[in-house]
Amino acid sequence: MINIKTREEIEIMREGGRILAEVLFEVVKNAKIGTSELELDQMAEKLILAKGAEPGFKKVGGYKYTTCISTNDVVVHGIPTAYRLRENDVIGIDCGVYHKGFHTDMAQTLRVSNQKSKIKNQKEKEIDEFLKIGESAMWEGIRAAKAGKRVGDISKAVQDTVEGQGYSVVRSLVGHGVGKELHEKPEIPGFLREPISQTPKLENGMTLAIEVIYNMGKSDVALSGDNWTIKTKDHSLSGLFERTIVIAEGKPLVLTRPI
Fold this sequence. Notes:
Layout: H1 7-29, H2 37-50, E1 54-55, E2 67-71, E3 74-76, E4 90-99, E5 102-111, H3 122-143, H4 151-163, E6 168-169, E7 175-177, E8 184-188, E9 207-215, E10 221-223, E11 230-232, E12 238-248, E13 251-254
Antiparallel strand pairs: 1-4, 2-4, 3-11, 4-5, 6-9, 7-8, 7-9, 9-12, 10-11, 12-13
């Protein structure tokens, strides 16, 4: 069953989404050369608590961190470690906030850069193009999330954007509904796995975490020995972009955004 949210519930999620966006963008700003993944995780927790909310990911059974940090060939669910960021690392920061009984979920990926260097080499240009396409795919997916359309319209928009540029959408990981639970129905794949007409219809009041999970190389992934971290099988770079939205008055409204 897909949970349709009331106006009051959407307003709570808007508050939580604002907190999450403010926190995540602050953490992203601090993802600099020499900073450790654990330091970023601790920063996120401190900021969330200071704003009167709770780390949503800590409510997932067995998970002890505020963020998932996915560096280079890590796709998702990366456990923050003492690893210190290096120039041109690709780091995805995924974070959730639990506020007044409701979850919001958000992720952003960036290339760690030397701010003093303004001339990009070929590798840096390729990484930046890869990340530009992933973020663009997320926004295309969000734009497709209109009442009367279907989940498959979101999936097609993401897949066309990512794979149209020669990258690969990960098949085994998907976006999802979000609300009282971190993961609710419907599943929102970044690719079409069935005809659009057979996918769930989108309605006003749906709150969705639209997520682009994609690789520079092939789509195949593997679970690491810690039973959390998922990496690319071919060790290619991976990217992750995600926002929580609500469909309101027929159109998508991003809830995870600062004022």
